[in-house]
Amino acid sequence: RRLTDRAMELVKGEFQPATWQAFWRTAVDGTPAAEVGAGLGMSPGAVYVAKSRVLARLRAEVRRMTDEEEQ
Q1: Do the beta carbons of residue 44 and residue 37 sit within 8 Å?
Q2: Residue pLDDT, tens place only, 11-37
Q3: Alpha-carbon distance 36 to 24, whole Å?
Q4: Banded model confidence at residue 69, pLDDT cuts 50, 70, 90
Q5: DSSP assignment of 4-66, as one string?
Q6: Which of 8, 17, 38, 63 has a 20 to 30 Å separation from 55 between CA atoms?
Q7: CA–CA separation, 6 vs 66, rounded Å?
């Protein structure tokens, strides 16, 4: 959990606010993509792409942090 929280702090600035909100509201809050998209002016498909991009970046950052701790 600590690694995930730190990774989120580190990568958040790499994304546009709408991309981060699309990720947060779907992945963390559990809001349906259609609802998030309507609120952000994005299609549901764009919300899924945004979520996927952020998740991929978070996974990579957690992996990097884990590798650093092991060394």
Answers
A1: yes
A2: 999 999 999 999 999 999 999 999 999
A3: 10
A4: confident
A5: HHHHHHHHGGGS-HHHHHHHIIIIIS---HHHHHHHHT--HHHHHHHHHHHHHHHHHHHHHHH
A6: 38
A7: 12
Mean pLDDT of 51-70: 94
* pLDDT higher than threshold 90 for residue 71: no
Distance separating alpha carbons of residues 44 and 22, to the nearest angstrom: 10
What b/e sequence results for 37-49 when a residue is b if at least 16 CB atoms lie within 10 Å of its CB, and e otherwise?
A: beebebebebbbe
Q: Examine the pLDDT at 1 and tell me if it is beyond 90.
A: no
Look up the pTM and report it.
Answer: 0.91
